[in-house]
Amino acid sequence: MISSWTKHLKTEEEKQTFKNTVLGSKTALNRLSQLLDEELESTKYSQLDPNNYGSTNWPYLQADKIGYARALETVKKIINLDQGTKQL
Question: pLDDT value at position 3?
């Protein structure tokens, strides 16, 4: 997924400039990843809440929470610069 970071750029110069900008933001992206981990953990615990089992909408609630967690994981994959910065 990391290759998608520069696919909108046309020249090698634009790609290199953008790559440097993204790599310079690694600290902020790592913090964002930590915040997403916290949100995922919170979502996991909310799925286990026994009060939700009695709800007639339980399957929909679970599907929503699972979809939300999947979206958070996707964002984490996109911002993970340690996957291989050569592809940026």
Answer: 67
Token pair recorded at residue 29: 């992206």
- Other Cβ atoms less than 10 A from the Cβ of 85: the count is 13
CA–CA gap between residue 8 and residue 51 (Å, rounded) = 46
The number of distinct structural domains making up the chain is 1
Closest CA to 23 of 1, 5, 4: 5
Q: Residue 18: which residues within 8 A CB-CB, separation 6 or more?
A: 5, 6, 9
pTM: 0.77
Query: Which residues, including other chains, have CB under 8 Å from residue 55's CB and lie 6 or more apart?
Result: 61
Domain extent at residue 31:
2-87
